[in-house]
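Most newcomers find our protein records easier to grasp once they have seen one. The structure tokens are whole numbers drawn from a learned vocabulary of backbone shapes. The record below serves as our worked example for the rest of this section.
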Amino acid sequence: MQKIVPCLWFDGDAEEAAAFYVTLFPDSRIDRVVRSPADNPSMKKGGVLVVDFTLAGQKYTGLNGGPQFHFTEAVSLQVHCDDQAEVDRLWDAIEGNGGKPSACGWISDRWGLSWQITPRLLLEMIASEDRAAAERAMQAMMEMVKLDVAELQRAYDGA
């Protein structure tokens, strides 16, 4: 059993969000929906209180806590993508479902949760021993919204 499970706070639509999220990755599913055993400040007895779900093997909990708290960019889900096709697929799915692109590979979904759709290659580039190449890749990334693997590679290579 996973010892630490991120709990994501929603305002009544945790089940809808989880149902969307599990379409994005293999090894993803809704594991359990827990209904409130009693009236509480967020809902009436019987409303969806908690949704436990798995994304790419990682457990999460969606809590319908009410309107008091909202997501910010201070916490995001970083997705390490293997190639441009995966970047495009995830980006397009989130944006097509009401998401709002930001910058540098960040996009907020329709619930306000921030995602970093990040090519693994970029992570390798910015950690490179070749600090000039790393800087070129970082500078290129800073000018992008959705990340472009080929463009990042050109910048890294100094082309």
Notes: The domain at 76-157 is CATH 3.10.180.10 (2,3-Dihydroxybiphenyl 1,2-Dioxygenase; domain 1).
